[in-house]
Amino acid sequence: MLAAAHKVHGKRPWAEAFGPGIALARDGFDVTPRLNALLRRDALFPTIPAARAHFYAADGAAKAVGTRLVNPELAEVFEELARDPETLYTGPLARQIVDVVQNAKRPSTFLATLNTTLLDMGAPSVMSWDASDPNPGLLTEDDLARYTPEVRQPVCIPYKAYRVCGFPPPTSGGVTTLQILALMARFDLSKYSARSPEVAHLFAEASRVAFADRNYFIADPDYVWVPTKRLLSPKYLDKRAGLIQVDARAPEVKHGKIKKSDAKAALLWAEDASPELPCTSHFVIRDAEGDVVSMTTSVENVFGSRLMVRGFILNNQLTDFSFLPESNGKPIANAVAPRKRPRSSMAPLVVFDAEGNPVLAVGSPGGSRIIDYVAQATLGVIEFGLSPQEAVELPHVINRGDATELEDEGWAPGEREAVQAYLQKLGHQVVVMEQNSGLHAIQRHEGGWRAGVDPRREGTAAGD
User: Fold this and answer.
1) What architecture (CATH level 2) is domain 151-464?
2) Where do the domains of the chain lie?
3) N or C: which end of the chain has fewer CB within 10 A?
4) What is the mean pLDDT of the segment spanning 347-353?
């Protein structure tokens, strides 16, 4: 994907772009507190020989904070990719990837975790598997050789004087985030602050409505019909906004209706069942010539599949598909299929002014909560006039269809309790918990640009 984008937009030589990455892999970096904590918390990763050798000390403990972590194998891979990006898909490197996948072992710790997840979702147990047997992954060299990136048109909506654009399906992030923004725009928010109980209620309900559509409709549009235009049409959103009550939690929220006369809607979907874990990265960049990128990338789980090839981790993005292919006799749109792309919640956004100039870019890691993280921060800037830093520091309010989650930190004294009491009075089931967003935002402001960096993770802003 990066190579394809470089052919269209790149100006520096392709190989030159790898210089900093090669140097960082070869010279290394110091283990950070966050990385150390993630390594200590993961029971499966140290059971994988390649991972244990790279990330853990001789006694099996996670490498301590401040330990220099070098990766000469990855530096060599970057040098190969700098010469030819196709080496990832054909040749020795591709064969090494396939070999690791096809000969992966199935540790008992993985089985226990998977069984718990599947049983919680109503899927059959896999406890009968023999943990000592190889787990023959189905990836082949032909699969890699056939892979091509897809260029897709963004999805956009008007919001006040702006045009807000996100990425289309198979990610659900663009459509669902835009739905939340559009639903919120149908209420008079001018009399409230961004941190008010009333806004928390409306936001939770708007998210609840949008997630009902997300879980039902959105999957890979190359394999199933996704009614993207309808989901973002003003008429449809007016109707969906009618489900949101200002002074009470709606008793029930279901997905919107598709006209049965629509020939493309022959399949009636069931609700999705995908765990979608919060292990993603995001950055936003604005260059000297005015181009802006908002980019989200993911290995799915915190250390992906835990499998490593020549210094890098293989993802387990397959778990973004529904764990169940059907429910109550109905197919699930996001069920796995050959060459099908899984649904994600990645939600990189770019906001444009009336002249078509980018004025705001936002995105975040965080699993399916990404959608609410990004929607809330975007609202904070364009609706409530907050700076990007103030917007990314807002305490999170999350609703993915069931309970309303309130972040445990970031509130003024007594503020969370007041919001919680108000929501419960309106009928919300409230859960207070830690949130792990990693929001980055940049905004054009008074002839320059200013940034917002999420204090919940390690990261910073840099530039002129």
Assistant:
1) 4-Layer Sandwich (3.60)
2) 2-146, 151-464
3) C
4) 97
